[in-house]
């Protein structure tokens, strides 16, 4: 079993370590590889798009055609997780910031996102969420996006302050926050268990 982490920019190494710890906890002898090039995602069972700067990550994945591999993987029913900037990239509909910057999206999740939704006053913070299928979870938000609308097929997994901050649509998981920045590996375990 192999998980790929898109490694072009952002908190890549944290996701790699979180996946390793989650494999250990599940007793699975799995593999995880960060990648900046075409060819790794296609040979994996799941892929994670980390947080970072969504415009930059978008440019690089489309330039390297990693975008195509992610879309193919998703079509095969394999799990794809996007956290923070990664959630923005998975969305079908961006806001005016996404449009203004010409950020190309993968359009795998039928949701509308709002970038940097908590403003400058609350650039980063940690709160306890109740996540459907996982339970209470301490979530770190950093210049986080929120989901403002969801399509019919989208399952809302968590809300914070009336904002939707975690969703799942079949094999696609999108989170506003950073599960890789705390020692709790349950989100990564949940994600690994989505592998068919
Ligand atoms: N604010 C970033 C963006 O819009 C996302 C922040 C993050 O991933 N921590 O791309």
TrEMBL record:
GO terms for cellular component: cytosol; glutaminase complex. Gene3D superfamilies: 3.40.50.880. InterPro entries: Class_I_gatase-like, PdxT/SNO, PdxT/SNO_CS. It catalyses: L-glutamine + H2O = L-glutamate + NH4(+); aldehydo-D-ribose 5-phosphate + D-glyceraldehyde 3-phosphate + L-glutamine = pyridoxal 5'-phosphate + L-glutamate + phosphate + 3 H2O + H(+). The keyword Electron transport does not apply. GO terms for molecular function: glutaminase activity; pyridoxal 5'-phosphate synthase (glutamine hydrolysing) activity. Pathway: Cofactor biosynthesis; pyridoxal 5'-phosphate biosynthesis. Coiled coil: none annotated. Pfam families: SNO. SUPFAM superfamilies: Class I glutamine amidotransferase-like. GO terms for biological process: L-glutamine catabolic process; pyridoxal phosphate biosynthetic process; pyridoxine metabolic process. HAMAP family: PdxT (MF_01615). Belongs to the glutaminase PdxT/SNO family. PANTHER family: PYRIDOXAL 5'-PHOSPHATE SYNTHASE SUBUNIT SNO, PYRIDOXAL 5'-PHOSPHATE SYNTHASE SUBUNIT SNO1-RELATED. This is Pyridoxal 5'-phosphate synthase subunit PdxT. It comes from Archaeoglobus sulfaticallidus PM70-1.
């Amino acid at each position: 079993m192999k998980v790929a982490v898109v490694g072009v920019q952002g908190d890549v190494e944290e996701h790699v370590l979180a996946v390793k710890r989650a494999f250990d906890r599940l007793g699975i002898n799995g593999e995880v590889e960060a990648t900046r090039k075409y060819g790794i995602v296609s040979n994996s069972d799941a892929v994670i798009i980390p947080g970072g700067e969504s415009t930059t990550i978008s440019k690089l994945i489309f330039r390297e055609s990693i975008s195509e591999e992610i879309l193919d993987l998703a079509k095969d029913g394999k799990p794809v997780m996007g956290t923070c900037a990664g959630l923005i990239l998975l969305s079908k509909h961006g806001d005016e910031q996404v449009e203004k910057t010409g950020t190309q999206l993968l359009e795998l999740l039928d949701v509308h996102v709002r970038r940097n939704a908590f403003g400058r006053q609350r650039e980063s913070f940690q709160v306890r969420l109740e996540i459907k299928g996982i339970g209470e979870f301490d979530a770190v938000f950093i210049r986080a996006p929120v989901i403002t609308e969801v399509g019919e097929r989208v399952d809302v997994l968590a809300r914070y302050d009336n904002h939707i901050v975690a969703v799942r649509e079949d094999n696609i998981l999108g989170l506003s926050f950073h599960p890789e920045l705390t020692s709790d590996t349950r989100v990564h375990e949940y994600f690994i268990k989505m592998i068919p």
